[in-house]
Design brief:
Length: 433
């Protein structure tokens, strides 16, 4: 039975890669030989998706009429204005790379020194140069955006086929593989998409989702947060190892600057897993996706070393205000850290030096912190852009569904399946938003 499941995983991965390669080849041929093929394929795809959403809306009472109308309008627009898709794609690619260049440049100025600082500058220059190149090339060869899409699909497809061959030839689940992720602009929307799906599932089904692979215990947990509120829409990531949960972020509201995207890097540690889950669901209105990883002894030692190295750069952060009650009715930038300290029952630390001394939402963020701890125990490679909480969520769910991976558990914590307690009239935070 195990052999059957393993081979089904391999075959499915290979076929997925083959389909993506075929899409890439069709895109290349449409640009080189017959552009109308690209137009008709794009319009046909939108019409099919419009029909699917319309069918769901009618038969299953889904609220998909809006998506159906948008896709129908998009298909008609492509047929009536065939040059528009190329113009839009080139503009999107160019803007994406320009924004990427700016983000890396900010990261360069925030870094003190070292390889990461130099890398950020080089990536900023490369991204800017590619952005200019795409804009110039569009005026000499309008199919530049199609070439980029085709190349992306081909690399994605080839990576999946190579991974399936690695799984076929080597039974070790921890063999390194190539992971090609979605662009960050799409990745960052994944937590919110999952949140909507899960909440809808629990409201309608009231059933449990598969949480554990047979006869396997995890050694490390990754917590991925999803919410509808503010920056939380893009998600957040924590890691729990040997009973201690580590959460990195800009918890010091007084240090925030540049639209709250930059501030002092703060680590919250707690050994009360349940209190932290309750805090996230009740106070932060989040849903948590928790994935468990099975590690080898060598991998456990690697994680320990990474944590010890980070701990050497930390100092206790114990501001006076977290020990005193907050004044009722008064807005406070200290509210979140006050709540997490008292309700999630942990300790706060700041970095006295090192990479994570300054928090930056597009650079030294929660995902990079967790990625530093986990090290090489997962295989995620971003060709262009950034690893986001959405990248992690998409990766770990895919690995959980693969029989031969080391992601052995998946738990979802929501207000629909977890007891967050009754409303308390004596709640010290009831007068705060």
């Amino acid at each position: 039975m195990k052999i059957q499941k393993r081979h089904i995983d391999i075959i499915t991965t290979f076929i997925s890669g083959l389909v993506l390669c075929i899409i890439g080849i069709i895109l290349l041929r449409s640009a080189v030989e017959n552009y109308s093929l690209f137009i008709y394929l794009s319009a046909t795809f939108l019409f099919i998706m419009s029909f699917v959403h319309l069918f769901k809306a009618i038969t299953k009472k889904h609220s998909d009429f809006f998506f159906s109308a948008i896709e129908l309008a998009g298909g008609i627009l492509i047929l009536t204005a065939p040059n528009l898709p190329l113009s839009m794609l080139s503009l999107i690619f160019g803007l994406y790379l320009l924004i990427t260049s700016i983000i890396y440049l900010i990261n360069f100025f925030l870094m003190k020194k070292g390889f990461t600082k130099t890398k950020s500058l080089l990536l900023s220059i490369i991204s800017f140069a590619l952005s200019v190149f795409i804009y110039i090339m569009y005026h000499t060869d309008r199919f530049i955006s199609v070439y980029i899409m085709a190349t992306y699909f081909l690399i994605w497809g080839i990576s999946l086929m190579l991974n399936s061959l690695i799984d076929l030839l080597f039974k070790n689940a921890n063999n390194p593989k190539i992971r090609v992720c979605l662009p960050a602009g799409i990745d960052c929307l994944i937590p919110n998409m999952w949140l909507n799906r899960v909440n809808k599932y629990y409201r309608e089904q009231k059933e449990e989702i598969e949480v554990k692979k047979e006869n396997q215990e995890h050694d490390l947990e990754v917590f991925i947060h999803a919410s509808h509120n503010g920056f939380n829409t893009f998600g957040h990531v924590d890691v729990l190892f040997e009973g201690t949960l580590y959460s990195y972020g800009n918890y010091d509201g007084r240090s925030e600057r540049f639209f709250s995207m930059i501030g002092d890097g703060v680590v919250f540690k707690t050994q009360d897993r349940e209190a932290y889950i309750r805090f996230c669901l009740k106070r932060c209105k989040k849903t948590l996706f928790v994935f468990g990883l099975k590690l080898t002894e060598e991998q456990k030692e690697s994680v320990k070393k990474h944590i010890e190295k980070l701990n050497q750069d930390m100092v206790l952060w114990d501001p006076d205000f977290i020990h005193d009650p907050l004044k009722k009715g008064a807005p406070s930038i200290d509210l979140h850290v006050h709540q997490i300290f008292h309700e999630a029952k942990g300790t706060l630390y700041k970095f006295k030096k090192g990479t994570f001394k300054t928090y930056y939402v597009f650079g030294n963020n929660c995902v990079r912190f967790v990625d530093t701890i986990i090290g090489k125990n997962i295989d995620i490679i971003k060709l262009v852009g950034f690893i986001t909480p959405g990248t992690y969520l998409d990766y770990f769910d895919g690995e959980f569904n693969r029989f031969s991976s080391n992601v052995v558990s998946r738990e979802i914590y929501s207000i629909y399946n977890y007891d967050i307690g009754e409303e308390d009239e004596n709640d010290p935070y009831k007068d705060f938003d």
